[in-house]
Amino acid sequence: MAEVAGSDRTPSLGRCILVPVANPASVRPLMQLAADLVDADGEIRLLTVLRPDAPAEAHAGAWQGMAVAETVAGQLGVTARGEVRTEPGLGDAVLDTLRDREASLVLLGWRGASSTTDVFGRLIDHIVGRSSVPLAIVRAGAQDYDRVLLPISADHLLPGGSSGLQLAADLAGRLRRGTTRPLTVLRTGQLGEELPEAILALGDRVHHDPRRTHQAVAAFAGATDLIVAPVAPTVSGLRAATTHLAWASPDATLLVAIDVGPTAESPLAPALTDAGRPAPDPRRPSRSDIRLVVTVRLPEGGTIGPDQVERILARSGTTEHLMAWWPTDDRRAHVRATVQLVAPDPDHAITRVRKTVQDAEELAGAEISYDVEDAPDAGTSELERRGIAVYEGDLTVIRDLSAPDPSGQGGRRSR
Q: What is the DSSP string of 222-291?
């Protein structure tokens, strides 16, 4: 991926945002998002669709709803224009309107539930499968959002996932304008390709959880988070970004970014596996001592040292196994330490350490990985568990405690 945010799509994404309105309760959260997404000289178009046999009262109510939505938009400092259309096919009416108004983005409200026959619901699925413009499908959270969370898996960095990540990054960059906390970039799965500079520029540091995306999000997301979920137009990507994330973050606002709908060769139906099943039981076995291996890739040119990193991590628990090294193919120093703390489960432990790291201004620009370690290796000596091994330069040990080389590159050792 050569580009993410800042591409030629960015200026036009907020040019004309189409917001279909079916539920009056969804008007304010949708208008808040639209206000943050629209260009300064762009427009917001509101749409309510009625069937031809709808009674006069329904028409009156629809126009009243448009007036309320326009008033809400004015309170948010933007202008919105509403219209009511009468057509037999509700989904087709939305598709016709996005073409007539030359919409650049469709913003849709979602209940957050899937069934055994639908992903977002029959109406939204119809639009997703046929839309020619990007879509942002939103499940409103229990509270107003004050932080944007952008989860990125290794699949999103492959050519097939780049378009979904491009859209999500564009949306996240716009939505952070309405938040009070820095945007959080969350890498999931195994590390591989470097993140594009445009992604790194969105947040002030990168957190890494090697588990699956929904597991990582469960540990990181809170009720006041807005999760912008990238999704490639494939059934597996759609399932990962919808049902599983909805389960993992029941109170947060969830925005699913879809660049285009699945093609005829990749229909929505196979994405329904597990969709209608109940969420997993959140109860976990009670645990007391949790051990996390935290690896910090320090900012390039920074002045913070290993001892300072350890002091930061010690704010959340007991630290041991402190190491620092400079891989031969990376100009940025790496610091690793094990943090032991008491928590109900690994998710709560990661959340506590992550907050400590996020609050440390010295780590701005760093990349932080979290790995759960259930217990020390049986072959680790007490000296190793209590000692500090610091690697410098070409992996030169300045205090040899027989600690393993964490980079796997077999550097020199000396006292």
A: -TTEEEEEEE-SSHHHHHHHTHHHHHH-SSSEEEEEESS---TTS-SGGGGTTTTSPPPP-------EEE
Determine the straight-line distance between the first and last CA of the chain, rounded to whole angstroms: 43
For range 318-344, the mean pLDDT: 90
H runs (alpha helix) in 253-412: 306-313, 346-359, 382-386
292, 353 contact by CB (below 8 A): yes
Report pTM. Answer: 0.81
Q: Which pLDDT belongs to residue 18?
A: 96
Within a 10 A sphere around the Cβ of 205, how many other Cβ atoms?
20
Output the CA–CA distances (angstroms, integers) from residue 167 to 34, 60, 84, 162, in the order listed.
15, 37, 29, 9
Amino acid of residue 407:
S
Q: CA–CA separation, 204 vs 259, rounded Å?
A: 26
d(CA 100, CA 79): 19
More confident residue, 121 or 168: 168
Distance, in Å, from the CA atom of 150 to the CA atom of 200, rounded to the nearest integer, reads 11
Q: What is the pLDDT of residue 274?
A: 56
**Pairing state between β 318-325 and 334-342:** antiparallel
pLDDT of residue 239: 74
Separation of alpha carbons 161 and 170, rounded Å: 14
Residues in CB range of 264: below 8 A, 6 or more apart: none
**Residues in CB range of 379: below 8 A, 6 or more apart:** none
Res 272 pLDDT > 60: no
Q: Which domains are seen in the chain, by residue range?
A: 10-139 (3.40.50.620), 141-231+247-264 (3.40.50), 289-397 (3.30.70.260)
Percent of the chain residues topping a pLDDT of 90: 50
Mean pLDDT of the chain: 81
**How many of the other CB atoms lie within 10 Å of CB of 405?**
15
CA distance 87 to 283: 47
Is residue 30 within 8 Å of 18, Cβ to Cβ? no
CA-CA distance, 373 to 320, in Å (whole number)?
13
Residue in this structure with the two tokens 């010295």, named with its chain if needed: 362
Q: Is the pLDDT of residue 35 over 90?
A: yes
Q: Which residues pair with 82 in a beta bridge?
A: 46
Instruction: Read off the amino acid at residue 386.
Output: R
